[in-house]
Amino acid sequence: MEKVKYCREVEVAGKFDVVVAGSGPAGLAAAVTSARAGMKTALVERYGVLGGNLTSGLVGPIMGSVSSGTIADEIEKKLGIWNNWCEHDVEDAKRLFIEMAVNAGVDVYLQTSVVDVLMNGDTIDGLVVASKSGLEVIKGRIFVDATGDGVVSYMAGAECMMGRDSDNLVQPATLMFIISNVDDDKVIDCGKEDYPEGTPEHKFVELCKQKSLEGELPSNVSIVRLYKTIRKGERMINATQANYINGLDHSDICKAEVDLRKQIDKVVDFLRKYMPGCENCYVKESSNTLGIRESRRVKGMYVMKDEDLIEGRKFEDVVVHNAVFVIDIHNPAGGGQAEGVADSTPIGAAAKVKPYDIPYRCFVPVKVGNLYTAGRCISGTHRAHASYRVMKICMAMGQAVGTAAGLCVQKGSKPGELDYRLVQKALVKQGVNLFD
Fold first, then answer.
1. What's the Cα-to-Cα distance from 340 to each of 329, 336, 371, 382, rounded to whole Å?
2. How far is Cα 217 from Cα 266, in angstroms, rounded to an integer?
3. What range defines the domain where residue 192 resides?
4. What pLDDT, in 10s, does the model give residues 153-185?
């Protein structure tokens, strides 16, 4: 590959205590928490709205659970969500999230992408960003990588992991969409794959598998998941799937966009033909960006393992408590779910977990001195990641890291040196239940 040398002076756009890259569930929570603690905080977001997959990605419902009292409870209340299986209103979320950040005192950089980092040894001095003004530098004392893809960590030289151990394949990409003109009295809401035999949901799951083999659904779309929204006559659909996609590669991203938008038409035709109540449905809206379930994972001081989740392990340095979500591995090489974890978990089933803790050490990369991670790029295995990657757990991660970042600034400490008990004390003061 041809290389060119590119050098120029770049203006400093701002200097901050805490700089958060990425405004998804984790990044939004981190920035708001940091600012509420009195830190001068910047939030850098590549799109024109905050929320990440909660808004731009049209992902719902907000899945997973954590202990009571986290910022996730506040966000769900703002969105008017009445249960864990109800899709939020994306347009409301776009307004609520920017208001939430600005009211907390966050300096928000929209339509601004991180393109490089300025390093001083193992310490980040600033993020080089591309905005409407060109290249600029945002300086900070503590940085939070909530980009999902571990962009800041990778550019700063942190050690990164990718995919499953056997072949480095990652979970498939998806485009979410919402259908309207649905008859609520007839439609079957089917959001998972393991329903009791003989139920309408089980019969529909089996029909999806059959029609995938027969070609009426794409060959790797063996389940069509339907979720209620907060509006009557709508369903959010999670079905499209693009395998063998590297979400860090521009050509793969384009390939997936083309494929998945074609798949939407095929899924809608299937629903009109086979799902009662969907005979006259149509696509109301679709995601503005690919839903990437998995890319880089940044190695930290501790690597979460699937055994930690299955056994419900508790940690002395807990900062996210009682996280719960199945080990949900969408098959990297085909349709449906990948194999389970425990010997008793059959192929095609998601392995169940016991309420588990996520320790402070998972958020501290081992090779960068003033950096935290939050969200799906934290330190864990491919299998463990498949549980904690969901949005409610990520919100609690962001709150923990935003709290820790502020304490580092106050104490003049680096993340690897900070006493985790200070983080725990601050989280409890915020109302988080860490020690039930």
1. 8, 12, 33, 12
2. 6
3. 173-292
4. 999 999 999 999 889 999 999 999 999 999 999
- Within a domain: 339: no
| Gap between the Cα atoms of 322 and 192, Å rounded | 22
Write the DSSP symbol of residue 276. Answer: T
Q: Which two tokens stand for residue 296?
A: 């880089």
Residues 28 and 154 in one domain: yes
The residue type found at 424 is: Q
* CA–CA distance, 355 with 370 (Å, rounded to integer): 30
Other beta carbons within 10 Å of 221: 24
Q: Quick one: angle between helices 391-411 and 420-429, nearest 10? A: 120
Q: What is the CATH number of the domain that holds 405?
A: 3.50.50.60
Q: Express each pLDDT in 315-327 by its tens digit.
A: 999 999 999 999 9
CA distances for 183 relative to 79, 130, 176, 228, 235, angstroms: 24, 46, 20, 12, 10
For 224, phi and psi rounded to 5 degrees? -115, 115
> CA nearest 173: which of 90, 246, 232, 113?
246
**What's the start-to-end Cα distance of the chain, in Å?**
55
H or E element that contains 323: strand 318-323
Q: Is residue 115 part of a domain?
A: yes
The mean pLDDT value of the chain amounts to: 92
**380: Cβ contacts below 8 Å, ≥ 6 apart:** 297, 303, 304, 305, 362, 388
- Tell me the backbone φ, ψ of residue 340, rounded to 5 degrees: -70, 180
Q: Which residues, including other chains, have CB under 8 Å from residue 418's CB and lie 6 or more apart?
A: 404, 407, 408, 411
Helix pair angle (391-411, 71-79), 10° resolution: 130
For the cut 60, the answer to whether the pLDDT of residue 84 exceeds it is no
- Name the token pair of 69: 């009292």
Query: Within this chain, do residues 276 and 316 fall inside the same structural domain, yes or no?
Result: no
Residues 305 and 283 reside in one and the same domain: no
User: Are residue 81 and residue 141 in the same domain, yes or no?
Assistant: yes
Q: How many residues does the chain have?
A: 436
Q: What is the model's pTM?
A: 0.93
Which runs of E-coded beta strand occur in 199-269? 225-229, 235-238
User: Helix (H) and strand (E) counts for the chain?
Assistant: 10, 18
CB 187 within 8 A of CB 320: no
In whole angstroms, how far apart are CA 182 and each of 88, 271, 275, 279?
17, 10, 10, 8
C-alpha radius of gyration, the chain, whole number:
21
